[in-house]
Design goal:
By secondary structure, the chain is mainly β. The chain has one helix and eight strands. Strands 1, 2, 3, 4, 5, 6, 7 and 8 form an eight-stranded antiparallel beta sheet that branches. The model has no long low-confidence stretch (mean pLDDT 90).
Length: 153
């Protein structure tokens, strides 16, 4: 999913896992068993004058990044593998926020780094639940929607 706008844009994608049945038959089926955010990035223009360029030390876009990853947990006695989902989120430059007009902010050289968002950098395990026929997380993850485009936002 993407969204474009003046001097910036946003995009994100979801990872879908399917259970495939009857692959070697005439009528195979696929059933969705897990959907998780896979990646996302929002780039927001922050310089609207030469003064902003100078104050922000040339960092004229605020960048919000999200990366998710699925790996298999070490072997378990479960019939279905246990999945590890991890996410990392960061903002550039340090200290910017989507909730704030960051254009007039005065930056230092120390601000010109990717800054990890501790709230949206996390890990969870997902186990297959035969009652729902889906993978489920033992604990819900945080709301990291500010890094993702959802349904054409």
């Amino acid at each position: 999913m993407t969204e474009n706008y003046s001097s910036g844009g946003a995009g994100s994608s979801l990872l879908y896992l399917y259970d495939l049945q009857g692959v070697d038959t005439e009528y195979p089926t696929a059933r969705e068993i897990l959907t998780v955010p896979f990646d996302g990035e929002k780039t927001i223009r922050a310089c609207f004058s030469e003064k902003h360029v100078k104050n922000r030390k040339g960092a004229c876009h605020d960048i919000y990044s999200y990366t998710g990853r699925i790996t298999l947990a070490p072997t378990t006695e479960d019939i279905w593998p246990v999945l590890n989902y991890s996410a990392e989120a960061s903002v550039y430059p340090r200290g910017v926020s989507l909730d704030t007009d960051n254009s007039a902010r005065i930056m230092t050289d120390a601000d010109l780094v990717d800054d990890t968002d501790a709230d949206c950098t996390f890990s969870r395990q997902a186990h297959y639940n035969p009652l729902t026929a889906r993978y489920e997380f033992s604990k819900a993850g945080p709301d990291c929607g500010e890094y993702l485009v959802r349904n054409g936002e």
